[in-house]
Every structure is written in C-alpha cells, then in structure tokens.
Design a protein that fits this description.
The protein is an all-alpha fold. It has one domain: MFS general substrate transporter like domains (Growth Hormone, Chain: A). The chain contains 17 helices and no strands. Helix 4 packs antiparallel against helix 8 and helix 10 runs antiparallel to helix 17. The longest helix is centred in the first third of the chain and has 33 residues. The radius of gyration is 20 Å and the shape is globular. About 55% of the residues are buried.
C-alpha cells in the first residue's frame, strides 16, 4: 500500500476516533444531568426539570454562534489546529462541570463547552482537504458514522461508568479521554494543505450566497432541525422517565444508557442499508420513510409503552429508522453543494443540528413540567411522523 494512502487512512481513522470519543463523552453526561443536579443540591422536582432543559440546551445555544467564528479562524489558521483546540476545550470544560457545586456553575461550564466546540465542521474540512476527490464521499460517510456511533453509544457507557464510580468521577473520566484524544490528534494528524487565501476569500461570499439562497437546501436544513428536536426533547429527562417504571435507584443510570444504546446498535447495523436504499429508491423517498418511522416509534413510546422491555423494543425500532436520516440528508446536501462548498455545506448542516439540540432539551423541560414526561416522546414524534408522511406524498406526486 502506498505511503500516501496509508497516511490518508491513518488521518481518517484518527479523526473518526476523535469524533467518536468526544461525542460519546458529551452524550454520556447529558441523560444523567437530573441525577447530578440532585447530588449538588437541587431537590425540587420541577426545578430539576427546568434546570435539565436549560443545561441540555446551553452548549448548543452558544455553539450556534461560536461555530461560524471558529470556521472563519480555521480558514485562517488551518483545520488541524481547530480540531485539536476543540477537543482540548471539551476536556477542560468537562472537568470544570465535575467541579461545579451549583446549577449556575454547571450552566456556565456547559456554555463554555459549547463555546469551544466545533469538532465536526473542522473535521469534515480537514478530511476533505487530506483525501483525494474520488474518495471524499466514503471518508465523510465514515466520519459521520463515527459521530453517530459516539452519540448513541455514549449514554450506555456513561450509565455503566456512573453506576460503577459515580457521576462526579464520570466527568473526570470523560475529561481524561478528551485530553488523551487531544494528544493523539496533535501528534498523528497531518497538517492540512495550504490554499491560496486570496482565492478562498474571493470565492467565499458568492458560495455562501449560493448555499443560503437555495430553497431546497433551506428546506433540508429545516428538516435536520426538526429531526434533532425530536431526538433531543426526551434525552435530558430520560432518567426521570425511567424512574416512572419503578427501576431501582442503583440501576437508573445504566437503564437510561441502555435505552439509548438500544437505538444506537440497530442504527449502526443498518446505516449502510439505508445508503443502498437511498441509491436505489431515491434519497428523498428514503428520508421521508426514516422521518415517518422514527416519529411513529416516539409516539408509541410516549403513549403505549408500559414497561422497560416495551420501551427497549420501541427504541430498537426507532434505531432502525433514525439511522437513515442524517447520512441521507448529508448526502443530499453534498450533492446539491456547488463546487468547492462541501465543507461549508457540512458546516451549515452541523449548525442545523445544533439548533435542534438547543430547541429539543428546552422544549423537553417545558413539556415535562407542563404536560408530562411521556409528552417528550409523543409530541415531537407526532410532528416528525406528519412531516415524513407529507414528504412521502410530495415525493410520490413528483414521480408521477
């Protein structure tokens, strides 16, 4: 194998490992926030729900504004430094959360976590810069799979570690993993090739106008927001939802992680299946099917599930369906991107995901208090299913 190809693959696997580890670390903590709030003195149940919603949204709310700034700096200083900076910042912020003694301090550190984020857009740009054009699509698919795997497997790992060593220690454990990943990226990754800054700057304005002026692109970005809202609305209060089923307190964290992993494993297994179906049946049709099935599964969890095994089964079905949306939507956007704008398009899609991550936890906290914990599943799920059915109808109409 030529040395250049070997280095290319090494870069890809290191960046993918960084994505997996950082996303796993960040999501390992999120479902356990209600339990952590109780440990630092928040005893009122409604206060726990409101604080959980605020804490879940905080890093993503800050990241929505911080990500474009880091994107501009990456154009100036390079993508590799942005990857290393982001992972190092996550390590510091996570340890800070472990040191927090009040919900306000915890909120500040969650905001810091969002301010230093931006791993994914920088990673997409770096992979695109270090990979030949004929292999960029496959490389970006692997990177997205690593990101999704980390986000879905993290809660189970977090639940297991929290039950073994405690939630406080979990923060330090995650921070240590992020610190080790920082060193790995700094030592192993190649520096991205330099581009003529003048040409880049000249093209930037027209490319952004082209992307943001396209109605189809904006519509897909809106779907990404809605999809993330549906996924994230139930996450912050999931531990409280588990407690409804009389799970022993010593097993709540592990059960919470298991429920999330129950959708994560089927998603990993079926991701390539969705890609093949998208190629055969059409991206839009498969996106619509993924949305409709994911939304229906969430409605059933909220309205029909009466035991943990039932929730596990429905979460597994949700995993089979949700696996399709993000890879297919990113592929659809990449195909629509003008030449030389794939990284920017990935950045827009990533920002759309963050917007959904902001809205979801805040909406979940409000729904949990005002309507009930089950509504964090069925309310956004019903909306997602309706959009999926509508998109399917439009797709069938366009084919006639």
């Amino acid at each position: 194998m030529p040395t250049t190809v070997r280095r290319e693959r090494l870069n890809l696997w290191v960046i993918s490992a960084a994505q997996f580890l950082t996303l796993a670390g960040m999501t390992a903590i999120l479902p356990l926030l209600p339990l952590y709030l109780a440990q630092i003195g928040v005893s009122d149940r409604n206060a726990v729900k409101y604080w959980t919603g605020a804490l879940g949204s905080a890093p993503f709310a800050v990241a929505v504004f911080a990500t474009p700034i880091w994107g501009s700096l990456s154009d100036r200083f390079g993508y590799k430094p942005m990857v290393v900076r982001s992972v190092a910042g996550i390590a510091i912020a996570t340890v800070g959360m472990g040191l927090a003694s009040s919900p306000v301090e915890l909120l500040v550190w969650r905001g810091v976590q969002g301010a230093v984020s931006g791993v994914f857009p920088a990673a997409v740009a770096l992979v695109s810069a270090l990979t030949p054009a004929e292999r960029v699509g496959r490389a970006l698919a692997i990177l997205q799979s690593a990101r999704a795997a980390g986000g879905l497997c993290g809660p189970l790992l977090g639940g297991l570690v929290a039950d073994l060593i405690g939630i406080h220690a979990l923060f330090y454990w995650v921070g240590g993993i992020a610190a080790a990943t920082t060193v790995l990226c700094a030592l192993v990754l190649d520096r991205d090739p330099e581009e003529p800054p003048a040409a880049h700057a000249a093209a930037a304005g027209s490319l952004w106008r082209s992307l943001l002026g396209d109605g189809g692109t904006l519509g897909m970005l809106a779907l990404i927001v809605l999809f993330q809202v549906t996924l994230m609305t139930s996450w912050p209060t999931l531990a409280l939802f588990v407690q409804k089923f009389d799970v022993p307190e010593s097993r709540v964290a592990t059960t919470t992680g298991l429920l999330i992993f129950a959708s994560g494993f089927p998603a990993l297994v079926t991701a390539t299946v969705w890609a093949r179906l998208g190629a055969r049946r059409g991206l839009v049709a498969m996106i619509a099917l993924s949305l409709a099935c994911t939304g229906t599964a969430n409605v059933c969890i909220g309205l029909l599930a009466e035991s943990i095994p039932a929730v596990l089964a429905l979460r597994a079905f949700a995993g089979l369906s949700l696996a399709g949306f993000i890879p297919l939507s990113f592929e659809w956007l990449a195909q629509r991107a003008p030449a030389g704008a794939r990284g920017r398009m990935a950045g827009l899609a990533s920002t759309a995901m963050m917007v959904g991550n902001v809205i979801g936890p805040a909406l979940g906290g409000w729904l949990a208090v005002r309507v009930g914990l089950a509504s964090t599943f069925y309310a956004p799920g019903a909306m997602l299913a309706a959009v999926g059915v509508g998109l399917a109808a439009l797709s069938l109409g366009a084919d006639r």
